[in-house]
Amino acid sequence: MATKALITGINGQDGSYLTELLLEQDYEVHGIIRRASTFNTGRINHLYQDPHESGARLFLHYGDITDSTNLGRLLNEIAPDEVYHLAAQSHVRVSFDQPEYTGDTTGLGTTRMLEAIRGSGAKPRFYQASSSEMFGAVRETPQTELTPFCPQSPYGAAKVYAYWMTVNYRDAYGFHASNGILFNHESPRRDPRFVTRKITRAVAHIREGLQDKLYLGNLDSKRDWGHAQDYVRAMWLMVQQDEPDDYVVATGETHSVREFLVHAFTHVGLNWEDYVEIDPRYLRPTDVNLLLGDASKAREKLGWEPELTFADLVTAMVDADIRLLEEQKSGILGPESRAVREFG
Ligand code: NAP
Ligand code: G4F
User: Which atom of ligand 2 is nearest to the CA of 284?
Assistant: First the structure.
């Protein structure tokens, strides 16, 4: 029988790549999506199979991580072997505007999933999408699994709570529950409200004369940026281990937003300084200035290595946004969601 996985946040950046990885390995994949007023499955449309057809291995269910009765029912009905809990309010800047909601989804959402599993009586393996944002005002560099947390945002604080709840269910109830402490990871499927995709999309538009300026916030902040495709592989590897544990997943390189700009604009022969302006709206009450991960444990115990470099990431994202725009202009694809599925 096929291994059954349940993914929350299946239509997000990571959920879409993880679904591809699991389907390639003959899993039966179940995903939870929220009802929205517009279609929100653009990143996984290319994977959709009619659930009534024989051989279908991807099944979508309506649900929400703020709705515990729904989660409990889904856990009972699906009885998954593995749960990948990726759903969250994942935008750090937005978490300052919506701290309570972020606590409810990004923090308590994990407790609701863990409780739904406990109530179901089944013992699926559990993956928690923890974040380098938990390190915040970093206490040491590079950051490892032993570096103390010092979150600098409501999002970071909610993720610290979720991290420790995952550890607690492992210790208290014997759950096979692991935290992946993932550093920033991006792709052509990244939402354009995160800085990397905001930049690469703007480069494509500026190159075509469709945009004059790009407004950004803190250019000095440094991130350890990897590619989402590499990072979902690390998630899966954690869940396959005999023993649950917590792992940092990072490239071991850090680059500033300014460096990202240089690479992205230079790739199309433009000078970023001619286009970028600072808009204080994009500054945060407190920002995380430097993240740099040490993924030695993941390398040694999981055999995980990132395959794509920072330069690969930037050029892949710029090229994908250029192709996307060309397709939209020629009218072949129309809505961005369809193009993203082609070029993701
Ligand atoms: P993303 O693209 O923002 O996806 C988030 C997913 O969560 C979306 O599918 C979203 O659904 C869903 N979601 C949000 N609120 C929900 C709710 N109340 N009920 C059900 N689903 C809900 O994020 P991502 O980049 O794939 O990241 C996946 C996870 O890893 C997140 O938990 C994020 O915080 C964490 N993480 C990300 C990074 C990174 O650099 N990407 C690094 C470390 C940790 P809608 O489409 O309906 O909004
Ligand atoms: O792209 P960002 O919004 O990502 P951030 O805040 O690092 O969070 C991402 O990575 C976390 C892992 O550490 C995840 F947990 C989280 O879910 C998310 O995926 O911002 C990166 C940096 C920040 O310092 C920000 O201040 O870029 C700076 N920045 C400068 N101008 C900007 C902008 N960020 C955004 N979003 N928009 C700007 O205009």
Answer: 26
